[in-house]
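User: Assemble these into one structure.

Assistant: Restating your components, then the assembled model:
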Amino acid sequence: MYRYDEFDARLVRERAEQFRSQVMRRLSGELSEDEFKPLRLQNGLYLQLHSYMLRIAIPYGTLSAVQMRSLGSISRRYSKGYGHFTTRTNLQLHWTRLIDVPDILHQLAEVDMHCMQTSGNNVRNVTADPFAGAAADEIEDPRILCEIIRQWSTLHPEFSFLPRKFKICVIASPHDRAALLSHDIAIQAIRNSDGEPGYRVSVGGGLGRTPYLALEVGSFVPRRHILAFIEAILRVYNEAGRRDNLWKARVKILVHQLGIDEMRRRVEAEFAEIRETGMLELPPAEIERIADYFAPPAFEELSGESPEFESAKRESKQFVAWVKTNVHDHKTPGYALATVSLKPIGLTPGDCSSEQMEGLADIMDSFGFDEIRVTHEQNLVFPHVRQKDLFRLWQQLEPLGLATANIGLVTDIIACPGLDYCDLANARSIPLAQEIARRFADPELQAELGELKIKISGCINACGHHHLGHIGILGVDRKGVENYQILLGGSGAEDATLAEILGPGFDSEGIIGAVENVIETFRQKRISGERFLDTYRRIGAAPFKERLYAH
Amino acid sequence: MKVVTANKLTFGEVVYWTSRGWQSSLQQAVVLDDADAERALKLAAESVQRCEVVAPYAFAVRVEHGRIIAISAREQIRAQGPSVRLDVGKQAA
């Protein structure tokens, strides 16, 4: 994985020192809160319901064992012994003290981490396919481009005051595991008919109050010109994006107001101008230099069938269940991807304790894993596990409470922190996720229901991706009381679709029964083997509405 | 009826306006009518100037059997801690 060079290391160290001085000036009264607030936000520090919340960037969701161990230690020492992995693949500490943050930033800097651009109107953490470097259907490692974008966009002077925040995602497979089209810029690595490497670029996706899927703005951008093309989009947005209304300031609004054809014309004009100077053309040697950091580990030559793995499956039914849901095919024979569920039944989706973080780091050390990945579905992935090690890995995850077998199933729920933590939330998300998971905890029932993605947001900002849920839930405030709307038919995969609101909302007790009724309707109407989404697409909303609102 | 709240500048902890300055329990808060709440917010603004607290505001409460109860779910959660982690926040004390 990428290691900081001298320049990177100095930058984050100096940034931590700079923030220490800003905190001291704030505490002495030299800086007012109004003056200080943008400075703390530029370092990912928010004031939330119970305390300050620090958002730590995890570039393209990749962490080393050293970093994971350090996050465990930081969350124990400076928070309350746990952190929360988010749908942006970052980590949030919900209980930090202002006076400790400079020390936290220093500890993060020691392990090549920081909190820059986890807030504010700039290019945020670039996300990627969590199966990068391991997926059988991948044509390149998308993190190479992510890292190039990270270096280019970090503290970029022209793009440090955009009309609004800006999220970029890169994948390199036909299969979308990163909710690609919900980003401001969605980049998919492709090859043209001559086999040349390049990218399909879409723009204007986003959830929130006005959800849109990104629209294609470049059908094939050659690799060497991709930064110029991204810069062209950002320039058009920076110049023409609205700044008068927070709710209309994202690039998705500009794209949909101009129309994609006019947006494309403007981007191409800007692109031509930038390309003329040649300033942003990526030299092959520099791409190679970055690519070297993402070179795959030295895979052993293994047979596709492991006797140890087969015998372990005969030994334990629970292991078989875990393999069925949490283990995915790897591009290399004899290897597998193993997803660690952060959705134990009845607990908080995405939460991870200090002990669990340190336990995961120990596992990485003992198995020789270089990396672990954070997914936008708030789980973790070991990308390169020898099949013969899977059983031992599963056995070591079990005592950490990290062996839940539910990836992609009804209990693998995305939930934002909601009103239990977040200052913006209107309603709680986590208790709903917990209760739904308890109701559907029976492994046989979960298996019978098959792939079913429930996504819950506690406000219109949609951090819980409710528009992309097969079943989405949106919490709203109804005269100070929590109320929940149901949306159906969304997808964040390669068949991306925005879910539609079914009808009037439910109170916090009614919503659980409503979800049960939706699922019961699916069970009655499904054709054998159909996923919830397939059934919904076949029969439409009417039978669900009938069940929920008929009386 | 209202109570004035803020967060401590240094720690971020939720605090309430009481007869003895800022305190951490809602039950210690002074319950105010609208006019008193306005006056308390002016004093709170001075406290912000002194770098004691940040982001003060007033919110609605009712009093039942001598206990102050926040009306909104948001303020109930702020007063206690996350409803999903009873081992953290004020409720754990």
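Residues 414-549 of chain A form a domain with the Sulfite Reductase Hemoprotein; domain 1 fold (CATH 3.30.413.10).
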